[in-house]
Fold each of these.
Amino acid sequence: MPSPLSIAALPGRDRVRIATCIGLLTVLAWVYLLHLSRQMSMLHDKVMPEMGMTMDMPWTAADVFFTFGMWAVMMVGMMSVTAAPVLLLFAAVQAKHNRPGASLAVLLFGLGYLTVWIGFSAGATLAQWALHQAAMLSPAMAASSPRLAGGVLIAAGAYQLTPWKQACLTHCRSPLGFLMTNWRDGKLGALHMGMNHGVYCLGCCWALMCVLFVVGVMNLVWVAALTGFVLIEKTGPAGAMVARVAGAAMVIAGIFSIVAIA
C-alpha cells in the first residue's frame, strides 16, 4: 500500500470530476425511480382495474427482468453516494503516485463496488418473486402479514446489534483503513478492491434494505429515509451508536407489530 494521505491531496479538478459523476449517477437513478413510481401508480389506479388485472397474477420473465432493473437502479441511487469517501481517497493515492490509467482504475473501483449491489438486486428480486407467489405482498409491494413485517423488522434490528454488522460498518467508516489493508496494484486490483469494499458495504446494509419489504419496496419516502440513515451510519460522528439504537428500535417495532395482532 502506498503511503497514506487524505482526500485533500487530490487535485480540485479531479475531486469535482468524481463528485460530479457520482452526483449525476445518483440523480439519474432517482429521476428514473420517480418516473417509475408514477407509472406504477397509474397502472394500479387505472390500467389494472380497467383490464381486470389483479396483483396475484403469476410473474412472467418480463416481470422478473423489470423488477431486477427496479432494484438495481434503486441500489445505485441509494448506495453510490456512500462510496464517495473511499473513491476520492483511492483517486488521491492514484494521483499522488502518478499512476498510468488512474482514471480507469477509479472507474473500475466504482464498477466493482456497484457490481456487488447489482448482485444483491438479483437476490432481492428472487425474494420479491417468492413473496408475490406466496401472496404475501400488498399492491404497494409491502408485507401483507403483520407477522411477516414484524419478523423482518426483528431480524433486521437484531442484525444491527451483531459483531458482523459492527465489523463491516467499521470498514465502511474508515476508507483509509480499508485501503491500507486491502490494497492491490493494477486495474484488476482496483476492480477487486471495489468489490471487496462493496462486500463490506453489503454486510453493513443488507438488512436495512430488507426493511423495504415492510414499508413498501417503491415507497420513495422510505427509500430516501433509508439512504439518509445509511449516510449517517457511515459518515456521522456517532454512526456506530446510531446503528445500535436503530437496531433496538426496529426490534421493538417488530415485536409490537406481532403482539398487536395477537
Amino acid sequence: MALTKTSFMRGMQCPKMLWLDKHKPSLKVIPPEIQARLDAGNEFGDLAMGIFGPYEEMTIYLPGTTVPDKKAMLTRTQDAMARGVEVICEAAFSNYNNYCAADILRKTETGYDIYEVKNAPEISEQFIKDAGFQYYIITRCKVRIGRVFIVIHGSDEESPFVPVDVTAQAKGYYKWVNDHIWELNRRQKEPEEIVIEPGEQCLKPYECWYYGYCHGGKQTEERGDD
C-alpha cells in the first residue's frame, strides 16, 4: 500500500516522521500514556460499531499477527456492498494503493454515509481532516457518499455516542488531500533520510514519537517551555 489515513496525516504534520515510519520504525518511542489513550480509542471504536444495530465487520488479520490484511479486507468490503449490507464496519477502500478503512459505512437510499469514531468529548479540525481523507479515497472508488459524521463521546454513559455532521467541512478537504497525497507518496520513498529542523511540528497537532531521535536523545519532558 502507498498511504493510509494515518500515514497521510503524519506526513502532513512532518514529512520526516512519515519517512522514519517507513525506513526506521524501530526508533519510534510511544509513551505509555499515549499507548493507553490509543488502546482506549480502539475500545471505544469497537463499542461504537453497534450504534445502528446489526453490522458486519471487515477486519481480517494476516495469519498469526494483529496486522490487518488489507487486500482481504478490500475483497470482503466489496462483497458486503454487493450484498447490500446496511452497516459495514472497517470498510476498506483503495485508490492507486492509497488506503482507508472507514469506521462505519452506513447504507442510505442514495449511497452511503461515513462515520468516523473518535474517543473525545469534542470535534477537532484534525478529526475533520481524517474524515476528509476517507471521503477522498472512497469517492475516488466511485462510491457515492452523502453525509460525513464524526462520532464523539457523550457527556454520560446514557448517551456514549454522539454523531456530529461535518459533511461540508470534510468534503471541503478533497482538494487539500489531492494536492498533497502524491507528493507525500514520493517523499516517503526517498532513499536518503529527509532533513527537517525540529520545530513546532514536533508537538502539534500531536507529539511525535521520534522526538527523542530528532532532538539528540532528549525526551519531551526535558524540552522546557521553548
Amino acid sequence: MTTAASIRRRRSARRIVRDVAPKVLVYLLLLPLTFFIIMPFAWMVGSSFKPIGSGIKFPPQFIPNPIVFTNYPLVFKTIPFLMYTRNSLIVTLTVIVGEVLSASVVGYSFARLRFPGRDFMFVVLLATMMIPYPVTMVPTFIVFKILRWVDTYLPLTIPAFFAPPFAVFLLRQFFLTVNRELDDAAKVDGCNELRILFQILMPLSKPALTTVAIFSFTANWNDFLGPLIYLSSARMYTLALGINYLRSFRGGGDLAPQMAAAVMFSLPCIVLFFLGQKYFVQGIVTTGLKG
C-alpha cells in the first residue's frame, strides 16, 4: 500500500512539473519583455511629476524627488488643451463612424455576395495596404487643395467613409465565420441584404466592430502627420499637433510639462482599451477563423 501510494505521489509530482514548467518558462521569458514595454510609460509618468529643469539632469533620475503636481495645471495654462481635445474628438469619432459603416458594407459584400471579379477585387484592395503613405501624400494633398479642403477636417475624415482596407479585411474575415443559414432564414422572411447586414450580422459582430473602433480611435487620436499637413489654423489643431508647442516652452521646451501632456494624451487610448478589452481580444482571436 505504501509503495503504491508513493508511486502515485511521484506520478502526480511529475505531472505537476510537466504542466507547470512550460508556463513558468514562458513567464520568465515574458517578464524582461514586459519590463522593456512598461519602462517608457513609467518613465513618462514619473517625469510628469518632476520639478521644472530636472528632466535634463545627469545621471537621469527615475523616481521624482521631490514630487510636484504643478506640471499638469501648467499644461492648461500654456496651451488650449481642452480645445485641442475637442478637435481631436470631433475628428476621431467622425472617422470611427465612417470606418465602421463603410467597412461593414464593403466587408459584407466581399463575404456574402457573389459577383464577377470578387476575389480579384479583394486582392487589389489588400494590395493598397502595401503602398506607403509618403508615396500618396503629395498627390493626395494636391487633390484636397484643388477641392479647397485644406485647413478643414474634411481631408482627415472623409476618406474614412470610403472603406479603409484594413477595416474591410477584419470585418470580411469575421463575417465569413457567421453561419450562412441565418441569411437564408432572413431572406425567407423577406429581408433584403441591408437588413441582413444591419439587423442580423452587425449585432453578432460586436467583437469585430469593437476591434475596428479601437484600432481606428488609436490611429486617428495619435495621428500627427495628417493634421500637420492639412491644418494651418491654430484653432483647428488636434491634440497630437497642439501639444507639440510645449517644446517651445521657456525657450527650448522642458521635459516635465511635455510628459504631463503626454500622460493626459495617452489616457483616452488606455481607458478605451480596458473598456473594450473583452471584445477586442475576442475579435482578434476569432477574426480569420472560418467556421
